[in-house]
Design brief:
By secondary structure, the protein is mainly alpha-helical. It has four helices and no strands. It has a domain of 62 residues.
């Protein structure tokens, strides 16, 4: 395989150092050897800048999602506490007796305490 030597064509003018604004405007500054040598570095910096911007947007998206989830969690926690409080109130003995009377069920509270049955396994 033969390798070909790359030749750089440079345009040199007498007014190159005197008119930098004109060189920038007409694009002739981009053909200088020093600029062409730095092109991979400039492309690398551009890639890093794009990745940095993308990472920033991704981080902001995650922060927004976290805030939404935290607010939803607060709402659900408050709802859970309310439900637990309501359940505790409804399950009190006096409240159960009142609900039984309101519904018209023929249930009565036990006046005598429950008795424990002991079975002797030897007999």
């Amino acid at each position: 395989m033969k390798f070909f030597n790359k030749k750089r064509i440079t345009i040199s003018s007498k007014n190159e150092g005197r008119m930098p604004l004109k060189n920038v405007m007409d694009g002739s500054i981009l053909t200088r050897d020093s600029v062409v040598d730095q092109l991979p570095y400039v492309l690398f910096l551009t890639l890093i800048a794009v990745l940095y911007i993308g990472n920033r947007y991704h981080a902001e998206k995650i922060v927004r999602q976290t805030n939404n989830i935290q607010s939803t969690l607060k709402e659900l926690r408050a709802e859970s506490i309310t439900s637990a409080s309501r359940l505790m109130f409804i399950s009190k003995q006096s409240e159960v007796a009142r609900l039984v009377n309101e519904k018209g069920l023929d249930l009565k509270e036990a006046v005598e305490p429950p008795q424990k049955l002991v079975i002797d396994s030897n007999e």
